[in-house]
Amino acid sequence: MIMCAGIPPAAHAQATGGNIHPMFDDPENVGTITAWHAHVYFDQESRATAAWLRERVAEHHPAARFGHWHEVKVGPHPGPMYQIAFTSGDAALLIPFLALNRRGLTILVHPDTGRPRADHLEHALWMGAVLPLDAAALVERPK
Ligand SMILES: [Zn+2]
Questions:
Q1: Which SUPFAM superfamilies would you find in this protein's record (predicted)?
Q2: What distance in angstroms lies between residue 143's CA and the mean position of ligand 1's atoms?
């Protein structure tokens, strides 16, 4: 039986009811990631900052692809935003670029593994805040 590192077997059995905790399932395979998205949220006040960031990303990461400015809520997103799509290769520099330059903006970064629900709700990296997503708008697909 697989055990939690550093937790005595008796304490582990008590904590889990004797079951192997789901955290011990096989890890997700990063090879399933076909792209990354960054969703940059804005409101009236932060719109100019969002425009500034969009221009800087375009300058410094020319391979990034930009979605439309969504001025109203769309899909699972709780408010206005635009999307930036990029490859796993570009993620290594683009995610840090967003971290250093978001200037107070809230950004959802998530991988695209073809499972929108898991990608937005479980695999998400949030910068600045965690906003509530509309889970009903996210389709579940099997691995
Ligand atoms: Zn997305």
A1: DOPA-like (SSF143410)
A2: 18
